[in-house]
Amino acid sequence: MNVESDVPVRECMSTPVETVATETSLVEAAQTMRNASISALVVMSEPRSIVTSTDFVDAVAKERDVTSLSTADISTAVVTTVEPDLPLTQAAATMTRHDSSHLPVAEAGELVGMLSKTDLARYQED
Predict the structure, then answer these.
(1) What InterPro entries does the record tag this protein with (predicted)?
(2) Predicted confidence (pLDDT) per residue in 13-46, tens digit
(3) For the domain with range 9-125, which CATH number is right: 3.10.580.10, 3.30.450.20, 3.30.1440.10, 3.30.70.260?
């Protein structure tokens, strides 16, 4: 991805961060994602995790009863976060290294945004 090296993540990230509890049903999580037009939610577990549209597809493809599952059942532990002042090029490299389409953005331990591949593509269009 060809992005300017000195542009910080904060100029591209999406805010606010949409979050759900671990016991949130997948139906409710999917409705939240649809209503917010997003493809990932941060699950407020310890450690934090993320649930993405790909996780939903995987659950359905494995013929799991998604009406009886919660976000904790299909979420993935957040391996890394990035800081809002990190250059986009480094954030994009982190996404590639971790094979991730979403990176939570944290400042002083507080979630402040979400960076997605879609955000990077939109930034490139501007």
Answers:
(1) CBS_dom, CBS_dom_sf, Diverse_CBS-Domain
(2) 999 999 999 999 999 999 999 999 999 999 998 8
(3) 3.10.580.10
What's the pLDDT tens digit per position in 40-81? Answer: 999 998 888 999 999 999 999 999 999 999 999 999 987 789
Strands in the chain per DSSP E: 19-20, 40-43, 49-52, 76-77, 102-107, 110-116
pLDDT at 93 over 70: yes
65 CB burial (10 A radius; 0-12, 13-18, 19+)? exposed
Preceding omega of 8 cis (within 30 degrees of 0): no
Q: How far apart are CA 11 and CA 120, in angstroms?
A: 10
Residue 106 pairs in a beta bridge with: 111
Query: Regarding beta strands 110-116 and 102-107, do their DSSP bridges make them parallel or antiparallel, or are they unpaired?
Result: antiparallel
